């Protein structure tokens, strides 16, 4: 018998990040791989396609800290005789835990703490479990945001957990269904991506699975080559797993962080497994649309260990095995207008003869392939994909997501769907509902939360005649890569009413002939000196422009809580170093600089240390280097 129930999950954790006020005007940088060097024509095209020039309409999520207390989180638990699966609808629907009940074995890296860190497109991200990634290269915009959740019923009466939301950057309706038929040794997951627009939209999907790392864990996939990226050079195709450095399928034996995107031949069944010395561990397999498979390792070096401790606490080493729509995470695919892409995935405990698993690569691949077919035959996964189209309508509302889907239903750009009820608009959507219904966007300061979409731009093009509407029209033009048009309407916004929001956007658009971006940000800061996220952007711009004395003057004028913020302390030390005040840098480092939202790959802390302590080892607290140093 299968059950689906609501449970309160107690865990030590930081408070949830909240959405900031500043929209993300930057996009996704170009990958370090020349498309002309791609071995496949479709891969070369995919590398060039779909990189967003901004992350609009989203704002940042950098408000979290590292202060932890006991949290009580709503979770949803699916359970049958063999498996127990725990989901967190408030964190992008993440599968937090998957336990094999007969053995009591946790198959995933179940993080003992709930600690956001700066690894996602919007900043905040969690390590552990299974994360669903949609949008653009990186951890998706809703990874720390709620999804809608309802209870459906499969044709045989099995309860189904359906989670869904409108991903607003790509304007795709994403649906994640999970169910556990009676006696099933695998958790079944059905994913669908629907593009309700008439034109194509770029999509990116990776199922990101964290599993425990151990000295004898081997990652096995049906490939003999992989695209390798080690954070120090461009992506390149290599033989896998045997390299000059050893057998790369044993992640715990290598010091460096690295990505390995498996080059799976087209006729192979899609799967990836992480198996211990006894030949046991988690396997993920899917229907054929999910073509990509990946291994990510933090490495055993000081920086990799520090990152894992930063994310999960001590003694919680993990690796990631992943599955995606494309061969690599640097690619985007075109989802045609009006179409839906869907696939089925399965997760479960795989048990394989350990001598074969840890023998030759050919032996390991063959043994795992046979075991996967016994655990979940390919035809059964194909049947599960078909079954997902026959689920009965929702019986219960289990969790609420955002009101953005409801707004687009009201606008007629997303069809109403009884199998995915979006509910009602909320406070964030009300200004845009007013524009839709009355033809004018109400003025507010701070501004209304941003939107994206041709219909909203058309409405504002016809009605924008005040600073607030002009500001939002500027964002919409910027999202369409109409930089000249964005500049014109943002300048109108400032002329109508000097405001920090449009000034900041103009700083983003600044060209050599314009006033320097830092000057525009200084003007914006004078209007909102209390807005910390704006202050940080200003300080970073001043430091990047070698205006270090001005940066220190801005810092000196801040309120004490802002001056003591970790990111601003880092800016203080960087500016002090540039003006030659080494004693101040040493003092700040000795007192401690903790940057709660330190970015993955950011080398600021170790750089500071080595600048004032040349030749001395970097303390573990400051060593987040992804490469040796």
Would you summarize the structure shown here?
With 629 residues, the protein is an alpha+beta fold. The chain contains 18 helices and 28 strands. The strands form 6 sheets. The protein has a 9-stranded antiparallel β-sheet with strand order 16-22-23-27-13-12-11-10-28, covered by helices on one side.
Summary keywords:
7-stranded antiparallel β-sheet; 629 residues; Beta-galactosidase, Chain A, domain 5; 28 strands; single chain; Serine Threonine Protein Phosphatase 5, Tetratricopeptide repeat; alpha+beta; globular; 9-stranded antiparallel β-sheet; 26% strand; 3 domains
What do these coordinates show?
The chain is of the alpha+beta class. The protein folds into three domains: 3-15 and 78-395, Beta-galactosidase, Chain A, domain 5 (Distorted Sandwich), CATH 2.70.98.10; 427-509; 528-629, Tetratricopeptide repeat domain (Serine Threonine Protein Phosphatase 5, Tetratricopeptide repeat, Alpha Horseshoe). It is 29% helix and 26% strand. It contains 18 helices and 28 strands. The strands form six sheets. A nine-stranded antiparallel beta sheet has the order 16-22-23-27-13-12-11-10-28, covered by helices on one side. A hairpin with a 2-residue loop joins strand 7 and strand 8. The protein is globular, with a radius of gyration of 25 Å.
